[in-house]
Design brief:
mainly alpha, 3 strands, 309 residues, single chain, 3-stranded mixed β-sheet
């Protein structure tokens, strides 16, 4: 039946159902996007410029900073425009591209966080063999696989999306190009697409999270065996920042994509997604810089307040 209808070529991003005054407040709030760019940019710059940070742990952290800047830049600029111009239109091709980048970058971050947990596991449980196990060749291989596999995996969703007909309505009740909101506009059965998303969610979210939890259970066991209180404190401090990022990232993502949608109203889903796509990338550099003495030391050296050792 849909073949006799006119297929739509653009969508209207509805955004938040709020008054004009609150929209202005939200626009100011989203200017924290600048903090995301500056914070992650500083982390990335320090890692590149300071030779003390040229180790695998900060190599993975530099990839996380690149991901956060790319992730936020993919969603926030269009969101800012839509806040000032309610009902912003976007054509089909840019919508699909933004959605693809959003999902691919999020998937890369899932795998990078797993790699970072493995790095901490080896550093704490096998410190004498760390340089052999986590060599630069291993670092480059793990990050290359994470990036390439994530972008290829996301293509599966895009191919399935492109097979769906969209003949109206064209209002997307969301604040950026998101896949679940797009399904509601399709003039066909999307249950298979949603099943694929759930299966991918198990593979991309539940699987990596399980590996991270196993790694940190082993890490906790190793830390408890450390005799020195100072050694325990340093080990806990090193891992705490990573656990904060993991909890924020996976917690919000699993609620969004792995729980029944009927239990979360649309406006609540928007708030969760807002935290997932905007505040997470902003908090990551703050968490790492506040909890990591080496990063703060590198910043002091760069500013000339501490002579290099």
């Amino acid at each position: 039946m849909w073949k006799n209808q006119t297929l739509i070529t653009e969508f209207i991003i509805v955004g938040f159902h709020v008054s004009s005054e609150i929209q202005i407040f939200l626009f100011v709030l989203f200017l924290f996007y600048a903090i995301t760019l500056v914070g992650n940019g500083i982390i990335l710059g320090l890692i590149c410029l300071d030779s003390h940070l040229h180790i695998p742990m900060y190599f993975f952290l530099s990839h996380l900073a690149i991901l956060d800047m790319s992730y936020a830049s993919n969603n926030v600029p269009k969101l800012l425009v839509n806040l000032l111009n309610r009902g912003g239109a976007i054509s089909f091709a840019p919508y699909i591209l933004q959605m693809y980048l959003y999902m691919a970058l999020a998937t890369v971050e899932c795998f990078i966080l797993v790699v970072m947990s493995y790095d901490r596991y080896v550093a704490i449980c096998y410190p004498l063999r760390y340089a052999v196990i986590i060599s630069w060749r291993v670092c480059i291989t793990l990050t290359t696989i994470s990036w390439a596999f994530s972008f290829l995996l996301t293509l599966v969703h895009m191919i399935l999306i492109l097979k769906l007909p969209f003949c109206g309505p064209r209002e997307v009740n969301y604040f950026f190009c998101e896949i679940l909101s797009l399904f509601k506009l399709a003039c066909a059965d999307t249950r298979f697409n949603q099943l694929v998303i759930f299966i991918m969610g198990v593979f991309v979210l539940v699987g990596p999270l399980s590996l991270i939890l196993i790694s940190y259970m082993r890490i906790l066991y190793a830390i408890l065996r450390i005799q020195s209180k100072e050694g325990k404190k340093k080990a806990f401090s090193t891992c705490f920042s990573h656990l904060c990022v993991v909890g924020l990232f996976y917690g919000s993502a699993i609620i969004l994509y792995m729980t029944p949608k009927t239990s979360h109203p649309e406006e609540q889903q928007k708030i969760l997604s807002l935290f997932y796509s905007l505040f997470n990338p902003m908090l990551n550099p703050l968490i790492y810089s506040l909890r990591n003495a080496e990063v703060k030391g590198a910043l002091k050296r760069l500013l000339g307040k501490e002579s290099p050792s």
